Write the structure tokens for this entry.
Amino acid sequence: MNQHEFWNLIGRCRQAAGQDDRQFLQAVKRELSACSDEELGQFNGIMMEYRSIAYMPGLWEAATLIKRFCSDDSFAYFRAWLISQGKEVYLSALRCPDSLAELDIGRKCTLEAFSYVADDVYRERTGEWFLPDSLCTLDTGLLDAMHAEIQYGDGVGVMHRAEDGRSFLPRLVKKYSGRSVWTEWTPEARETQWGSDYKSPAPEQSRGSGLSGQSL
């Protein structure tokens, strides 16, 4: 499986399910049930790599603004949900997190189970809880092709103070009642709340790249 097949599968399942996440997950499981173990592993590796790619402070700010509160785990589940929305929404959010204001998404924006869907299919098939890392490792060519399509917009890679953050996400601020996430988002506050790692977060490393990562 390559990234095009991955996104095509997501697109088919999302189109069939609309915004019903339960139906979406059922559709994904049906499609993956017809895949080989190797294809399951590649799907899982691609999923984790895309989740890692989206581990950016500016997107975390958007998630916190939408959800009112977004811990490290919650942000992981948010990124799984973001991938489940399809390639166009995902890439747009990396270019401009404020584009999420165009979606009718409420405040939930979380889909933890999507992160484990390939493991679930593999467990039902083999009785083993997790896909082996050897099946989830992506080759360099596929990783390069995935990253070549990613374009981070200005400000996505930095954490904003209030005066800059409201300009960075103006539509989300307006849509979500003007609530200011930045009252709790100063570097000092985040360092105290989440630990010093947050100040300069290292990119997640996915199973897809053959490495164990943080908060996957």
Q: What stands out?
A: The first helix runs from residue 3 to 17.
